[in-house]
Each structure stands twice: as C-alpha cells, then as structure tokens.
Write a structure and sequence with these properties.
Strand content: under 5%
Shape: elongated
Largest sheet: none
Number of strands: 0
Number of helices: 3
Oligomer: single chain
C-alpha cells in the first residue's frame, strides 16, 4: 500500500455494497477503485456547489480564528 493511501472503514448498507460490487465487476476494477471514484465525484460536486463554497469559507474562517487564538496563547507563555 502506498504511504499516500489511507485505509478507511465505513458502514455501508448491504444493498449498496452489492451494487458497488456489481459496478466494480462490470467496470473491471476492484471495489476500492469504485469507492475512490465515488469519493472524487462527491468532492467535485460539493466544490461546484455555491452553498457549499459559502459554508466552506465560513468553516475556514472559524478555523483560522481558533489557530490565531492558540498562537496568541503560545506567545504569552
């Protein structure tokens, strides 16, 4: 396994697992490849969504505020 790939465990309904297995078999790839492609598709669709972009910007701003507070606490020590 490449050091850039991380194992992931998820609970997926049995019917979805069966459907994913069929897709993998028909496409001639393994289940991991189907899951990676599905994840990439999901991420791409989220990034193309304006509402998601706004929520992402808000989350990033909140994260930045936390990091700045942590940094300022570290300089007072």
């Amino acid at each position: 396994m490449s050091r850039h790939n991380k194992p992931l465990s998820a609970r997926i309904p049995a019917e979805q697992v069966k459907a994913l297995g069929i897709v993998a078999r028909v496409e001639g790839v393994n289940l991991s490849e189907v899951l990676r492609a599905a994840a990439e598709d999901y991420i791409s669709r989220r990034l193309a969504d304006e509402g998601f972009q706004q929520r992402l910007e808000q989350a990033m701003a909140e994260e930045q505020q936390v990091l700045e507070r942590m940094r300022s606490r570290g300089t007072r020590a």
